[in-house]
Amino acid sequence: GEDVEQSLFLSVREGDSSVINCTYTDSSSTYLYWYKQEPGAGLQLLTYIFSNMDMKQDQRLTVLLNKKDKHLSLRIADTQTGDSAIYFCAETNNAGNMLTFGGGTRLMVKP
Amino acid sequence: EAEVAQSPRYKITEKSQAVAFWCDPISGHATLYWYRQILGQGPELLVQFQDESVVDDSQLPKDRFSAERLKGVDSTLKIQPAELGDSAMYLCASSLAGANYGYTFGSGTRLTVV
User: Fold this and answer.
1) Are β-strands B5-7 and B10-13 bridged in parallel, bridged antiparallel, or unpaired?
2) Contact A97 B98 (CB under 8 A)
3) String of b and e for B43-72 (b: at least 16 CB within 10 Å)?
4) Which residues pair with B19 in a beta bridge?
């Protein structure tokens, strides 16, 4: 079955880059995703990457995918205090009809 | 921008009572999901609908949980009787078809069982 692992916590200073890492198990995942959750809110889709890509950039966000190692990362450039949230990595299942989420990484941005 | 609507936003209930949550997906979204998110953890799938049919409810504790989407639009998730361990955020999500391109989540219902 699918299993997604993330580190629990990351603390950075405002203006620095943040890198949040994720490992997954299902090599057949077609898409991999990053979601953001602010306190007391639902999950917001930040970005996703197709499994045949190595990198995707979207403004301050860069997603890197190492399919061989089943490793996904999210880099946030020029991290702002508003980026403080929990970030979830997710992968699709074999059938492509549901997502399995990691436990989330809490990003704390210090001014 | 279209949203997934959920209500209530917060619910406090005593254990052994019945509780129900409602979700209205984005118009036209055929696939609807209910996830449970325990504090400090990632969301876990409870049930998935395609139109009015259940696609996957293998993780739904069927002795106390039930879900329906009678007309293939909005959906209700019920717990009866509620237990202390059911305290969590219940998230509804929808998509046009399947999981590709991701889901859109609602704001969730935070349930506290006392």
Assistant:
1) unpaired
2) yes
3) bebbbbbbeeeebbbeebeeeebbbebeee
4) B79
Strand bridging mode B5-7 / A99-101: unpaired
- Candidates A7, A38, A98, A100: best to mutate against B (most CBs of B within 10 A) is A98
Q: Tokens for B42? A: 């990632």
Which residues, in sequence order, are bridge partners of residue B7? Answer: B22
Q: What is the mean pLDDT of chain B?
A: 94
For residue A32, list chain B residues with Cβ-Cβ distance below 8 A: none
Does the distance separating the beta carbons of B43 and A101 come in below 8 Å? yes
For A51, counting Cβ atoms within 10 Å of its Cβ (0-12 exposed, 13-18 middle, 19+ buried), the class is middle
> With a cut of 70, which residues of chain A have pLDDT below it?
1-2
Place of tokens 């916590």: A9
Local confidence band at B101 (pLDDT 50, 70, 90 cut-offs): confident
Q: Residue B3 has which token pair?
A: 């949203």
What pLDDT, on a 0 to 100 scale, did the predictor assign at position A2?
62
Query: Taking Cα atoms as reference points, which of A59, A6, A72 lies closest to residue A37?
Result: A6
d(CA B1, CA A36): 18
Q: Are B31 and B94 in contact (CB under 8 A)?
A: yes
Measure the CA–CA gap between B97 and A97, rounded to whole angstroms.
Answer: 8
Distance from CA of B76 to the nearest CA of A (A): 18
